[in-house]
Design goal:
About 25% of the residues lie in helices and about 30% in strands. It has about 160 residues and is an alpha/beta fold.
């Protein structure tokens, strides 16, 4: 499988003291719940004809949907609240998530006009509020230590 672009964002609210005279800076993380934002609004045109009736995030790989790989990783790392940005065939994603993950707190935000990932994430601002966020693209399966990223005292952005 070809590697596609990967984007992970872990933004946290922190109070930091700057480095003075060579001292290490210290950061104290304010204890706020972390929410996962998963953009899954794309039409999946590169996977036609498979995505005419099925969103890309719900395509099965090794008996599990792409979205399940992502949600399971994040949930195992301690994230219990998810915001899904949906668009094309969004009702199928909504139905799948509600049926497969009834115990998670979920929100669905509709991106009616495809204006990019930044716009999609901006649509979640009222739900996110002041909480930390972890953004994982809904069409990318990655092998990485999610728990380490979630528990890091630093904000991160990883793109490949």
């Amino acid at each position: 499988m070809a590697r596609s672009s990967q984007l992970f964002v872990n933004f946290a609210h922190r109070k930091c003291t700057g480095e003075l005279a060579g001292e290490r800076s210290t950061c104290l993380m304010q204890m706020t719940p972390m929410k996962a934002i998963i953009p899954v609004a794309g039409a999946g045109t590169k996977l036609r004809p498979h995505t005419y009736t099925q969103p890309k995030a719900l395509i099965p790989i090794a008996g599990k949907t792409i979205l399940s790989f992502i949600v399971d990783q994040l949930h195992e790392a301690g994230i219990n609240e998810f915001i899904f940005i949906v668009g094309y065939l969004g009702e199928k994603i909504q139905d799948y998530v509600k049926q497969s993950y009834p115990d998670l707190t979920t929100h669905f935000v509709f991106q009616n006009e495809r204006q990019g990932t930044g716009h999609a994430i901006e649509l979640t601002r009222n739900i996110v509020g002041e909480d930390e966020v972890f953004v994982a693209l809904g069409d990318t399966i990655c092998e990485y230590d999610v728990h380490e990223m979630v528990s890091s005292p630093f904000s991160m952005l990883a793109i490949k």
